[in-house]
Amino acid sequence: MKYLKVFLLVIVCLACIFLAVYLSGASIVPNLLGKNANSVAVASSTDQTLLDQSAPSFDLPNTSGGYVTLAQFLNTPTVLVFWSTWNKLALDQVKILDDYLASGSKDAGLVSFLAIDSQEDPSTVLSLIRRSGYQVPFALDTYGDTSDRYHIKSLPTTYFIDRQGVVREIYSGILSQSMLVDKMEQIIKQ
């Protein structure tokens, strides 16, 4: 009887730990898989280092077989979303962005969008994109270099960059479509 109580206590403790990690929205998957601990790590707040600074440049493969650079977005307000297939909130953010683009809003044509997958095997990302039929343009940050330059600590993280290439807002977490539209309207005006 004594061992049964100890066994049940251990099970309850493990279940509580699992539930806390699951509900936190944080992912320990990269650490469990042996990925770089500095890449997509648990963060309690958004790193604002790049706010009001020039956005770091990048040159990443896209999912169409070409490459995409930050220079391609100069003179156009830009929304960058860092995401990953294993993160449900990040997937939800990509879906919200895709729904917005599919809605045909007049403002959607005034802003450039790019969803940057952070540190995953390209075949995993391409498979998800093919199955989902997303309209959002995607880039692959397979080794996390761009994620590091953008100080990504949690997913999803969204950068709003004005037409001069300056980071005007950084949002970590999921943005509703109305929040997304409000923030886009701000960078369109700048």
Characterization of the model:
This protein has helices at 2-24, 29-32, 88-102, 122-132, 145-149, 177-189; strands at residues 59-61, 67-69, 78-83, 112-118, 138-141, 157-161, 167-172. By secondary structure, it is an alpha/beta fold. A five-stranded mixed β-sheet has the order 5-4-3-6-7. Strands 1-2 form a two-stranded antiparallel ribbon. It starts with a helix and ends with a helix.
Shape: elongated
The top level CATH class name: Alpha Beta
Strand order of the largest sheet: 5-4-3-6-7
- Give a short account of the largest sheet: 5 strands, mixed
pLDDT averaged residue by residue: 84
**Oligomeric state of the chains present here:** single chain
Portion of residues within helices: 25-40%
Number of strands: 7
Q: How many helices does DSSP assign?
A: 6
Summing up helix and strand content along with how strands pair, one would put the structural category as alpha/beta
- Span of the ends, CA to CA: 69 Å
How many domains?
Answer: 1
Keywords:
190 residues, alpha/beta, elongated, two-stranded antiparallel sheet, 18% strand, 6 helices, Glutaredoxin
Short note summarizing the structure:
By secondary structure, this protein is an alpha/beta fold. It is built from 6 helices and 7 strands, in the order ααβββαβαβαββα. The protein has a 5-stranded mixed sheet with strand order 5-4-3-6-7.
List the helices and strands and how they pair.
Blueprint (H helix, E strand, L loop, with lengths): L1 H23 L4 H4 L26 E3 L5 E3 L8 E6 L4 H15 L9 E7 L3 H11 L5 E4 L3 H5 L7 E5 L5 E6 L4 H13 L1
Parallel strand pairs: 3-4, 4-5
Antiparallel strand pairs: 1-2, 3-6, 6-7
